[in-house]
Every structure is written in structure tokens, then in C-alpha cells.
Amino acid sequence: MSAPRYFAAALAITALLAFFLHDRSSGSAKAASVKPDGDRREAPNFTLKDADGRTVHLSDYRGKVVLLDFWATWCGPCRIEIPWFMEIERQNKDKGFEVLGVAMDDEGWESVKPFLTEMKMNYRVVIGNDETAREYGGVDALPTTFLIDREGRIAAIHIGLADRRDFEDGVQQLLQPPAAGRTALPAGPVAAVSR
Q1: 53: Cβ contacts below 8 Å, ≥ 6 apart
Q2: Hey, which residues does 184 pair with through a beta bridge?
Q3: 12 by DSSP, 3-state: which?
């Protein structure tokens, strides 16, 4: 199959998948829940470069809710989710929320920079590598998206194309202040308190 036909077929399949997923989720199904505090594990830190050559550490985002998205320019479902993430970023940036994209393209910035311009992406993107993917459990499918709480812990994982509301609901849950009479848990292990 020629490249233009292959690309057209891939777009058609992606559009059908998006339609069926939207239709399936348009009922009363509840969005995927965020893990309880005690079930969250520390998100692995990394050191990667952004499009301007600046070093980015995940730990730089401590204190913010982060949507960490592993994606690639050739990934059809990623192209569907990226505009959602741009909108979620616009709506919540002033509330302590950031989107951080980890592009997994083998060609690196050669492929990614034109894509950033084409999509007019409003959030920071870094180039990932095999080591980063391994630290996050292998990242065997794209997109794979992690919601990370203000303490730097993984609160939810979405593998493949998810419903937009799953992301929106998860972000809103993580942006909520701790319940009255309860403080946010510190990062790392928590010692048991005896009464």
C-alpha cells in the first residue's frame, strides 16, 4: 500500500475508533477513578530536553498536578487526544496544573518540532527514550498517559485512547483541596501512628 493510502487508511480507522469510543462512553458510565492516596507510587523522575534545549526534570513539577503523556507524531489516537490536553491545559493552568508531553519518535526533534508547530501545542514537550519508557513500566502502547498528583505520585494511568471526560474528571479530582480535617499526605512512605 502506498504511503498516502496507508495514511488515509490509518486516519479512517482512527476516526472510527474515536466515534465508537465516544458513542460507547456517552452513556452514564463513570470516568476511571483516581487511585486512593495509599495506592499511589512515586512517579519516576527523569532528565530530558525540551524543544528549546532546556533540561526538564519531572521533579520540577512537584506541587502541581501533571498530565504526563507518552505519544508520537505517527500515532493516530495521540492526534485525537492532544487537542483535549491543550484545552485542559488552558482551563487549568492557573490552578496548578501542567501537561508534559513525552514524544517517543525515533527521529527525535526532526519529526517532533514541525508537529508542535502544526498542532500549535501550548504545553511543554520533551523527547523520551527507552530508559524513560522502561521506568514507567515499559510504555508498550501509545498513547500512555499518567496523571500525577501534587506530591509527585501516579494517581491514574490511561493506556491507549481514553475518553476525554476520564482525563477531565481525573484532573479535577486531583486539583481539589484535601477534604476538610485532612491534610495532603507527604511524598514517600508514611509511618503508622499508634493510638
Answers
A1: none
A2: none
A3: helix
Could you give the C-alpha distances from 42 to 6, 54, 64, 69, 153, in angstroms and in order?
40, 24, 14, 16, 4
Q: Is residue 15 part of a domain?
A: no
Range of the domain at 77: 29-175
CA-CA-CA-CA dihedral for 46, 121, 103, 76, to nearest 10: 140
How would you write the pLDDT of the chain (195 residues) with one tens digit per residue?
444 443 344 444 444 344 334 433 333 333 457 999 899 999 999 999 999 999 999 999 999 999 999 999 999 999 999 999 999 999 999 999 999 999 999 999 999 999 999 999 999 999 999 999 999 999 999 999 999 999 999 999 999 999 999 999 999 999 998 654 444 444 443 333 332
CATH of the domain at 127: 3.40.30.10
Determine, yes or no, domain membership for 110: yes
